[in-house]
Amino acid sequence: MERVLVVDDDTTVRDVVRRYLEHAGYEVELAGDGEHALRSVRRQPPDLVVLDLMLPGIDGLEVCRRLNNTVPVVMLTALGEEEDRIAGLQLGADDYVTKPFSPRELALRVGSILRRANRKAPEVRELTDGGLKLDVGAHTATLDGHELSLTTREFDLLAFFISNPGKAFNRAELLERVWGWQFGDQSTVTVHVRRLREKIENDAAHPMRISTVWGVGYRYDRCSTD
């Protein structure tokens, strides 16, 4: 049985989320603050963490940073916390749900992310575009010999782009085809594209690899001709 750690300082929220997740077939552990959550992860890593950003003591962003992409994370955020949501995604969070939220939708998102995480790992192979190289098996990326610091979501998106050059994809297609999400906030794609441009483009304001196709979405253009 897959284990989900629910971290929220509101006992009502924790109890409601626990009941829905247990009904969906998950084993659920609860934590009311960041310190308790980190101790729980160290003791027995869960398969996924549902993490409120507004926590007493160690806040959710710091918890997410310390998890360091070792476990999938779904953030719980308030409606006006856009900057915190973006910061969480940049730290490697997989998705977020805005309060007040539907517990049933949260359970569906948890299931979608866990199915994605449990897919069979791809065969070891390398994707290249000029000086940009991705080792899909090792999940590492380099640009002109220098290692890139990519989150799991950024790596998956870049690998998809390089594997599908010259084709335009809208944000909904990228959500589903890259991360297996049939629902979710499409601004997640926008955030990850912006972050990738900052890391792989010479000038992120005038990208050569990841182009915006107005009215459609994004297209990857190879820099090499090989």
Count of individual beta strands? 12
What oligomeric state is this?
single chain
CATH class of the largest domain: Alpha Beta
Please describe the biggest sheet, giving its number of strands, its sense, and whether it closes into a barrel.
5 strands, parallel
Radius of gyration, rounded?
A: 18 Å
CATH architecture of the largest domain: 3-Layer(aba) Sandwich
The number of distinct helices, counting runs of at least 4 residues, comes to: 8
At the fold tier of CATH, the topology name of the largest domain is: Rossmann fold
Q: Any idea how many domains?
A: 2
> Strand order within the widest sheet?
2-1-3-4-5
CATH homologous superfamily descriptor of the largest domain: Response regulator
* Helix content class: 25-40%
Secondary-structure content class: alpha/beta
Distance between the termini: 47 Å
Mean pLDDT: 88
Summarize the helix and strand pattern as letters.
EHEHEHEHEHEEEEHEHHEE
Strand content: 15-25%
Keywords: DNA-binding, Phosphoprotein, Transcription, Transcription regulation, Two-component regulatory system
Domain Response regulatory: 3-114
Domain OmpR/PhoB-type: 124-222
InterPro entries: CheY-like_superfamily (IPR011006), OmpR/PhoB-type_DNA-bd (IPR001867), Sig_transdc_resp-reg_C-effctor (IPR016032), Sig_transdc_resp-reg_receiver (IPR001789), WalR-like (IPR039420), WH-like_DNA-bd_sf (IPR036388)
